[in-house]
Amino acid sequence: xxxxxxxxxxxxxxxxxxxxxxxxxxxxxxxxxxxxxxxxxxxxxxxxxxxxxxxxxxxxxxxxxxxxxxxxxxxxxxxxxxxxxxxxxxxxxxxxxxxxxxxxxxxxxxxxxxxxxxxxxxxxxxxxxxxxxxxxxxxxxxxxxxxxxxxxxxxxxxxxxxxxxxxxxxxxxxxxxxxxxxxxxxxxxxxxxxxxxxxxxxxxxxxxxxxxxxxxxxxxxxxxxxxxxxxxxxxxxxxxxxxxxxxxxxxxxxxxxx
Amino acid sequence: xxxxxxxxxxxxxxxxxxxxxxxxxxxxxxxxxxxxxxxxxxxxxxxxxxxxxxxxxxxxxxxxxxxxxxxxxxxxxxxxxxxxxxxxxxxxxxxxxxxxxxxxxxxxxxxxxxxxxxxxxxxxxxxxxxxxxxxxxxxxxxxxxxxxxxxxxxxxxxxxxxxxxxxxxxxxxxxxxxxxxxxxxxxxxxxxxxxxxxxxxxxxxxxxxxxxxxxxxxxxxxxxxxxxxxxxxxxxxxxxxxxxxxxxxxxxxxxxxxxxxxxxxxxxxxxxxxxxxx
Lengths: 258, 278
What we know:
Radius of gyration of chain B: 24 Å
Largest interface: A-B, 90 and 92 residues
Helix content of chain A: over 70%
Low-confidence stretches of chain A: none
Oligomer: heterodimer
Structural class of chain B: mainly alpha
Number of strands of chain A: 0
Shape of chain B: globular
Helix content of chain B: over 70%
Low-confidence stretches of chain B: none
Strand content of chain B: under 5%
Structural class of chain A: mainly alpha
Number of strands of chain B: 0
Mean pLDDT of chain A: 85
């Protein structure tokens, strides 16, 4: 029998304190989204889908969802391609600058978001892509790239080095080695980085606030103004939709973990 | 040989040009050079000099925001590391079903957007939310408690956001502890209390220091949670930067303010991460 290492006097309850703090705010949103009333409240026995229906009919919210999905998909595609190239390149190059290069690639993930926000605000205004789709896409890509690089480097590091040597000996070009030998063996890494990049873009708010103003209104931006002005229960229903979509992506992306 | 495999030099060049360069060029153009640009903004506008930094250090309004920010960050760091310590301990040493529940409680919030989490707390803590009516209904308090739109609400929301970040270094440190040391202490007659304070706590200290720094630095640059849960009454540095940039268009002051968390971040990199990397 495996006894607890500190003694039997630490109750399991102590661990569950953490659980009790971590989960309620996420669960609280679900019943609120089914309230029949016009204001933020608990349903109290009567459930209604009116706020979900409003989500489908309200023009403002309707424009936010496709905007975020389109941006998210483009960001995920670009991020995955350049992160795959980078991770494979680093793996093949075996350069002595590897640490420096990877450190540079991971920087946007490690600095506080407000610094990325000010930096990318500077970039988008100087490049005249402030408050435009290209601006938001570049911004989200920069923020998602580190996560994709980490995911892919972990996946690729598990490959056998002989794979690359064998492919090279058989006369494969670098492109062939990448597409026919490396990528098929890191399918899950590629899928995980794609979904991760999509979710990051789909939920991004702190930097998006700095690089957009009136023309590009993503879903989190709508939620932000909704939360700052009048809190409508429609935010609860959109929140449930966002949680479900993120959870689905998490399931797809992390399936391999088992 | 154009058709054959590329060798040596040309292969390496191909890798650098087409595999590594795209990402590096993207970051160089859209991140590293603009980062330098932000510095130049802070010293060149409106005129050349360090006047903006002087203002950051002397303006009483900004100083009070800074002190407020430091206070909230410190409180957040203390409470989220405490909570994360409990969670990490049970994640590493708990029986398998409990481990799964704890992992779920740490990882699911980690995945969920900061906006949604702030909204969830707002829904729970408002005077007409979920907790207050339950308390008044049970007759425990007569008036709703002021749980949100004040510093308490901001700290609760930020602790919730930061706890997973604090849990990861603690988990990795706890995993490396040799359990036999604790068994030996137990065999030598040390009680649980002593085993914890004289052995377990000192062994996990590097993880605790790392977690405190990570939380503190991340919290410095935070503004979504304070803006929503503080209800405009609790302004932290990051929100002030946002206002300076977006509403008053005071870019120079905004950039000068932004260099403060950046400097803290750089210092913490050298202080903590080098030590943790060992």
